[in-house]
Amino acid sequence: MEFDAGPRSLLYATVSTGFKAGGFFVSAPPNNSFGPETLTAYTIGSKNRFLDNRLQLKVEACYWDYKDQQISFVGGTQTPTGVGSGQITINAGQAEIYGAEAELQFAVTPREIFTANVQYLHGEYTSLNYTYTSLNYTGLSATGAPIRSGCAVRGSRLANPGTPSTARFYDLDCSG
């Protein structure tokens, strides 16, 4: 939607939707799939020119609402012989991104233009829970200690029960 508020002033707003299909990552089934993600994006803004078109001002705000956003990381994957390290894709429950931008252009002379751009962006996982194993790049953790992620640990369990391996799975809550 757009509205000409004056000869050199435009107000606009959009609502857009997006979809990204689910899929599989390289690991043994059954825990190697992820679902689709959806996005609804809202934008509102204004574009204006003043002083015989020498001054241009654009102001815009946005809000993105993700459902089941897909995120990828290196983590513990099931293998025929136990647990290995591999690329994993999961769905974050919900995420939101919002922000604003102001852009200014001023023609000091026909050949000299002053520009300024200010942006603010905030992103937050309102729901992000996942399971991570205590693997590192050189192999299994000697102690099975949790990774240092800054996320709350909600539980843990042995990755290879019945074996001497101390590798553990950790249930992390990274919401917020």
What does the model show?
This protein has 176 residues and is an all-beta fold. Helices cover 0% and strands 72% of the residues. It has no helices and 13 strands. The chain has strands at residues 2-6, 9-20, 23-24, 33-34, 37-50, 55-79, 82-109, 112-127, 129-133, 135-136, 139-140, 152-158, 168-173. The chain has a six-stranded antiparallel β-sheet, with no helix packed on it. A three-stranded antiparallel β-sheet has the order 9-13-12, with no helix packed on it. The chain is elongated. The two termini are 33 Å apart.
The first-to-last residue Cα distance is: 33 Å
Oligomer: single chain
What is the H-and-E element order? EEEEEEEEEEEEE
Query: Tally the helices: what do you get?
Result: 0
**Structure class:** mainly beta
Assign a percent range to the helix content. under 10%
- The strand order across the widest sheet is 1-2-5-6-7-8
Proportion of strand residues: over 45%
Shape: elongated
Mean pLDDT: 83
Main β-sheet description: 6 strands, antiparallel
Low-confidence stretches: 135-142
Count of individual beta strands = 13
Rg, Å, rounded: 24 Å
